[in-house]
Amino acid sequence: MDINTDLESIAASIVENTKAIGEYRLKDSSGNIQLLPRDAPQEAQHARQLLLQASIQLQQLCTEPSEFLDQAQIHYQQLSAFQWLIHFQILQHIPLGTDVSVAYEDIAKAANVSSRRLKSVARMAMTGGILAEDESQRVKHSRISAQIVSEPALLDWALFITRYSAPTALAFARATERWGDSKDKNETAYNLAFNTPMAFFDHVSQSEEMTQHFAGYMRGQGRSSGLAVEHLITGYDWARLGPAHVVDVGGSTGQIALMLASNFPDLSFTIEDLPSTIEESRIQLRDIDPSIASRISLKAHDFMQPQPHEISHLADVYLLRKILHDWPTATAHKILQNLVSSMKPGARIVVMDTILPLPGTFPTPQEAALRVRDLIMAQNFNSNERERDDWIELFGSTTPPLRLNNEWQSMKSVMAVMELVIQE
C-alpha cells in the first residue's frame, strides 16, 4: 500500500470516528469541553481509541527522520516544563474556568518565582496542551490542566511522574552500564537517580512524605482509563462467589477493596500492607459508610512472609492487583508460594496484572502504555512485565502448582484478570 492510500485510509478513519463520538461530547462545570464522559457507551469509547490510533499513525507517516529528533527535543522539554509547573504549584495559583485568566506577574509573586522564567516555562507547556493564554497574554487553564488541578488523584499522579519516575528513567542507561543485566533490586536506575543503596520500597518506607506520595500515585493510577478499577469490578464475576472473604494483598490505602465492597455487598475484605500504609488506610477509610466499613478490616502484613493463620482460615480469595509485576521471577514465586502454602480448600487467587502483547497486536496507544509499564518495572525493580507464557511458567512453579483457570482482558484495560486455582 502506497503512502497516498495510507493517508486516505487514515483520514477516512478520523472522519468516521470523529462523527461517532460527536454526539457524546459535553461541557463540564468549568465550561471545558470533555471529549467523552467516562460513562460513555462502549462503542463511543472504542471510536475514541480508533481516533487516537489514527492520529498517531498520521503523525508517524508524515514525520521525517530529522523531524523525529525535533519532536524528541520537544517532548522532553514539555515534560521538563510540566515538572517545573508541578514543583512550584503553578496550576494551583490559576483560577478554574475557561474565561478566567491571571497575569504572569501575579502568579510569579504567589509562587515566588521569576515572571520571565514562568512565561518561558508556561508557553512551552502550552505546546503540549497544558495551560493557555487569552488575547491579553494572561494565563488560564486549558482543558487538561483544569482537570488535573481539579482532581487530587491526578495531581498526585503528576507529582509522582515528575518527581520520581522521570529522573529514574533518565538514569536507566547509566544503570545498565554500571550493573548490566542485574536482577538485584538495589542495582537499578532508581538507585542511581536517588543515590540510595536501598531497594525502591525499602527507600520509600523510610520517608513519610515519600510513602504519602506513593499512595497518592496509586490513587492517581486508578483514574487512568487503562488502569481504572472498573476493569476489576467488571472483569471478574465477583457476584458468583456469594458470601466470601477477599484478602487484598498489598492493598495500599484500601481504594480497591472499598470499590469492590461498594458494588458487592456479600463480600468482606481484609486489606494487607506494611504498617505505615495501613495507618494511612485508617485515615482514608474512617469516614466511609458504616455498612461498608463493617465489612473491611486492616492487617499490617509483609507479603514476603507466610499468611497469618487468622487470615488464611478466612480467605476465599487472595487478590493481587499490580503486585507481582513489581518483582523479579524468584521473588514473585515467593509471594505466590506464601499464599499457596496458606490456602484453604477451594480458595483461589485473582491476579490483575499486565500481560505483554506481541508487537503490533494491540492499538499503538495501548501497546505503548504497556511498554511504559514494562520499562518502569525494569528501572525501579530490575523486574519486567510478563508475556502470557511467562505467567503460565510462574504460576506452575509453586508447590503444589497453580493453574490458570480463567482469564479476562478488556481492550480498554492495560491489565488482564487471571483466576488461579491449585492444580489437582
Automatic annotation (TrEMBL):
Domain (O-methyltransferase C-terminal) ranges: 184-397
PROSITE patterns to which the protein is assigned, alphabetical: SAM_OMT_II (PS51683)
Key words, A-Z: Methyltransferase, S-adenosyl-L-methionine, Transferase
Organism: Talaromyces pinophilus
GO annotation (BP), single: methylation
The protein's name in its UniProt record: O-methyltransferase C-terminal domain-containing protein
Lineage: Eukaryota, Fungi, Dikarya, Ascomycota, Pezizomycotina
Record keyword Transferase present: yes
GO molecular function annotations of the record: O-methyltransferase activity
